[in-house]
## 1
Amino acid sequence: MKIIVGITGGIAAYKAPELVRLLKKAGHEVRCAATEHALQFVTRVTLETVSQHPLYCDLFASGGTEHISLKDWGDLLMVAPATANIIGKVANGIADDALSTLLLAFSHKPVVMAPAMNCEMWTHPAVQRNIETLKSWGIRIVGPAEGELACGVNGMGRMAEPQQIADAICQGERSKMKGERWLVTAGPTYERIDSVRFIGNYSSGKMGFALAQALVDAGAEVELVIGPTALNVSTYQHIHVHRVESAREMYAAATELFPQCNGAILSAAVADYRPAECADHKLKKNNSEGMHLDLVQNPDILATLGGMKTSEQTLVGFALETDNEEANAQRKLEKKNLDYIVLNSLRDKGAGFGVDTNKVTILSRDGHRTESPLLSKREIAQLIIQTTT
Ligand code: PMT
């Protein structure tokens, strides 16, 4: 993993080189970013020597866009120590130096913070409120620990030990969902008209497959029920592939697998209707008139899982809309008894069918709303998992 270690101005900054060393020993590539105040406690030379990369400290050093290239490079941003100041800045969207700007740019990737401060600062309502805000956005907090503080008193506020932080990063990334099993539906369904024709749609399965990969990265086993696609999804450990063709086949597989799962994310574009009859031969052209197809409704897989769901399970649906997007998504969230719904609008350029990017709004049952910019489907999948699990 590519990890950025951000260091802020607290006495525990002297432990940052040890953290960098441990992360590198565990096989990670590490770069450091520091505030000016951090460099009162630990030197640039030390951080550059242990990380073997230039330190990122000055927002304008290389044209003012390094926070973006560093964001693109990193898989995870770890802030250790995290002072009350940096916690407050992130919680309030303030970006006034290199590290705080990088933290805002990192809003769709994993961030971990190891707070360190005096015990009375730690219990201040503002700090506690800010910590709760960060947690609600999916930022992981490691520590602080109780013990002797730099100011001489004993209390809660010591930064967690470097080994504990390094373990938390490694375990967190690989085992956040260890032991969990998730169902994902992906791709289109084909509804046969006759032996050579079908009703289908443009779904490629890319969004669903990205979700399956992101769940596996977080440590889960995945049951991937996927309609007809050209994607190569078979060679991945921990992704159990169930290939189906029609909505009814997808329904049968999903309803059978769901009771053994901790949750489900239904990203498939399922045909709402199918031909009432399927001819077992190729239908011949009728020269005199047009052709009429009688359609009947397919079962709604998501609504059925919403009815089966226990209080232990999480159910995430998608909504693909072209107008009144949010109101329609909200209606689906309630009607189908979901915990979250991921809205794509076909009005957003680069979002939806076939492409490698997407732009979504995630609505939760309890009224939270998370809006993404245009990101790769892999990053969108990580954001969905961060927000919903
Ligand atoms: O596969 P890609 O090319 O990567 O494209 C991704 C995507 C655009 C298909 C995906 O991001 C997406 O938006 N999927 C949902 C498409 C859809 O059918 O939306 P909907 O609003 O019609 O359905 C709402 C929800 O009900 C969806 O979770 C759908 O899977 C589910 N559904 C719908 C009908 C049905 N009979 N059974 C269902 O489970």
Note: DSSP finds 13 helices and 21 strands in the chain.
## 2
Amino acid sequence: MKKKIALITGGSGQDGSYLSSFLLKKKYKVIVADRRNSRSDNWRHKYLGIEDHLIYEDFDLSDFDSIFRLFKKYKFHEVYNLAAQSFVKSSFETPISTANVTALGALRILEVIRITQKNVKFYQASSSEMIGNSSSKIQNENAFLNPRSPYAISKVFSHNITKNYRDSYSMFACSGILFNHESPLRGEEFVTRKISKGLCEIKLKKREFLELGNLDSKRDWGFAGDYVEGMWKMLQQKKPDDYVLATNKSYSVRQFVNFCCKHLDINIQWRGKGKNEKAFNVKNKKVIIKINPKYYRPTEVDTLLGDFSKAKKILNWKPKVLIEDLSKMMVEEDLKRLKK
Ligand code: NAP
Ligand code: GDD
């Protein structure tokens, strides 16, 4: 049987790497489209042992021609648009380029699909950040969108334009509204990986303390490896639609620190409030976590908690790895890497 061909934009990022691995196992031919710099050391693909099985193409989501050329070269069955300026904090410093890539990038791909390969199935990486500060305790596909950053506002645009192309041109276009998902392949700027790596360095006496921002913000944290299966399932349905993927459990940044410390056998105690809050190592009385306000955001999303019941019912999807095992997996992998 002829292999299906999938295009993954941002295929060298966290999700793109897990999705590449997943699709290779399903016998797809996988085209990873990225900026060349994004894959300079290919550490994620090496970790998953897939580097030699992928086809790499240079492309930039802000460059219409580079997208057009890809669609001239290959006839795709499925397109996963995962590329984005994905770091919320940076979007406050680079709002215009974030909008150009994260908002208009999706439109560029949709336009090329409309012109060249209208029957391709398209997945857009939408985000729980679009929901922002919600008045409902738990959020599903119908949540009111109240975005709180240039990143989230860009994702609202790409989410809405995906729906508009589905409705206007009968295109098979889906959005996955994914709540936070992490892994040992998470970028080090995101809080979970910053905590797991930082605490491992403290454990190995390579660092004294770690500086964080808002400890009170709560996120619904799942495992990226589970979520890429949900993306694929969305494109295997008869009809295109949007789905929330989440765990339906929410924890604060402080609680994530506590989980990692437990796995590392570091007994900590929190003292103080607000900017003066600190975590002490009970054993040697040293401060190991401090607050640095430079990590605060101009506007914050306080709490996210996802309702994935639609994905459970229609896609038969549910998360397998929850925060306790996720934090353990991340800490164990960071320890291994640091000891090398
Ligand atoms: P990631 O690791 O940051 O991956 C994003 C990839 O996009 C990176 O390889 C990045 O390259 C690339 N990229 C950035 N700008 C580009 C451009 N102009 N042209 C081509 N490629 C570009 O993010 P992720 O965690 O895998 O997330 C995948 C997607 O899901 C993103 O769209 C993200 O916004 C969305 N999302 C993620 C989560 C989550 O919790 N992980 C939740 C909801 C939605 P560089 O590294 O070189 O910048
Ligand atoms: N990055 C970071 N660094 N965040 C910190 C820190 C710190 O030192 N201290 C506290 N935080 C808080 C942030 O203020 C935020 O409330 C929370 O930790 C999570 O931050 P990130 O890990 O940077 O993720 P995010 O929730 O802003 O965005 C991620 O999830 C979105 C889905 O909801 C990204 O993956 C987005 O691309 C994704 O759309």
Note: Residues 95-116 form the longest helix (22 residues).
